[in-house]
Predict the structure.
Amino acid sequence: MKKARVLSTAFVCLMTLSLTVSATNARQAEQEARDILDATGVKGGFVVHIGCGDGRLTAALHANESYAVHGLDKDVDNIEQARKHIRSVNLYGTVSVDQLEGNRLPYIDNLVNLVVCEDLGNIPMAEVMRVLAPKGVACIKQAGQWQKTVKPRPKEIDEWTHYLHDASGNAVAHDSVVGPPRRMQWVGSPKWARSHEHSASLNALVSANGRIFYIIDEGPRDSIQLPPKWTLIARDAFNGTILWKRELPEWYNHLFPLKSGPARLTRRLIAIGDEVYTTIGIDAPLSAIDAATGKTIRTYEGTKTVEELISTNGVLFLVVNPDRERVDYKQENANCWSERDRASKRWGWDATIDELTAVDAGTGEILWKHESRIVPMSLAADDHRVVFHDGEAVVCIETGTGNQLWRTPVQRSTLIPTGWSPSTVMYKDVVLFSGQKRSLVTLSVSDGKQLWSSKLHPSGHFCPEDIFVIDNLVWSGDIASARPRSTGMFTGRDPHTGDINREFSPDVEPFAVMHQRCYPSKATEKYLMPSWIGTEFINPRTKEWEIHHWVRGGCFYGMMPCNGLIYATPNACACYYQSKLDGFNVLAPAAKKKLPALSDAERFQRGPAYNKIRVTRNETQKKSDWPMYRHDTRRSGRAGTK
């Protein structure tokens, strides 16, 4: 009995010591993870731990839900031990572990935010840099000390801080890496937008400092009649990791008809550096939000019901209407097209007086106000001037003082419905304004004098028409309708004279069998990206077309080209539904260097049960069994029973 008590006491002491050591190891791993994350400055995203060992540090690198962590190890026993630990702390899923083979990391280029490794072994540092996203960090232990290496952001890629790229309204990214899609960068949810017959699910999307931000209705896809769940979401731009979410308790009526906008919702969101600017509610004041955490930094006084906002040089220019009443929409027509026409006219622009308000983004100080009618989506700015249409004329205001510099009468459409709106582009020393369908007026930015006017090619389908300035040419394309009504011809004009300097038709059959997609086109410095049927890539210099009917964005917003990638938003479109991609798809161009394909031997992994089953067929299968689809390997589809 005494011996048994001694053994029992020894066992308890051993278990206590084991638990103490385990707890100590866990605390050490957590402290080391905190030190690594603090030193590298990585606040969320995709973390890779090479040589994960027992998985304690791997799990600890999951500091919060903003992180996804992937451990790699060459040792099978380490992998099993790491997986056991990760399961024990209920993190398996957001933290996972796989076996590392050879000296190549199993990731696409520019994907990972943080690589942690004590010993790279035969993995070259160049391979680590390949998989790191721009501004990603490698934390490698050398001589007992963690060494930090940051991958620079290439000058060849651009951000997309506003609905139409920036405050100028010229929807052209200064991004020479974006190109025809050849690879998937990442895929996100939801798989479908909520409805084709009602308001688009995604209202706005922008990108800054390696992150993307968007406003989307996450309500149930089962029925659009179920309540909405409007949410502001932040993801890492290069791997799609969800960094944070903010619920928007009150937003625009999600039952508003299809193809009716309202267009102004796209300009409720911008991102500059590490701050996001939007309203946390349809009639709420403007807020500045920390881009890394989603927490509110400041709320701007005197900005209740911001309808549009743009920003240049640290100043926010807001269209504010504190007296704006909410749209009390109720469906009256069963036919969605009739309801679209009714609602878009009924709640079209009502020519009320707004306040153009200039606010210091950093302090919230109101610099000046200018009361005027402001036509929806006509606001644009450069470093020195902000322009808009007041219903009768284009007005130019000095950004620093709020003083009116000039006012030039320019005709506009009598009706400004909720979906379609005018287009304004500021480019160097000219202002381009399209206030009537298929028309363009060009003014001098210095004095407002009209330089020239012309007809635009037909574009846009219940959305703003396309105007781009690329290579110092003003471009428009004939893509509004199906062929042969629309020809696909693109015309480039001199911005100062209106002279046609370049013009060409498609060099391929575009198979344009229907109208343009229900959102404006986008562009980069290298490619026009019209939304005719899918996502066409047109090189205006070589006049070459490349068509991609299998990918498109969602109605209302469309696509976003930046960060060297194409962001195709979730859609509810029935066109080409048998072949197009679904979900939130982010596409990459062809890789600069093609990696060699893995051999069958490298791809094949032997599991723990491999070669251990030593029984005959009669012992494993009865005549009454149906062990696989189509019954057997011959796919006979026939049971052995009588």
User: Anything to note?
Assistant: The helical segments are 2-40, 56-60, 76-88, 125-131, 336-346, 600-603, 617-620. The chain has seven helices and 39 strands.
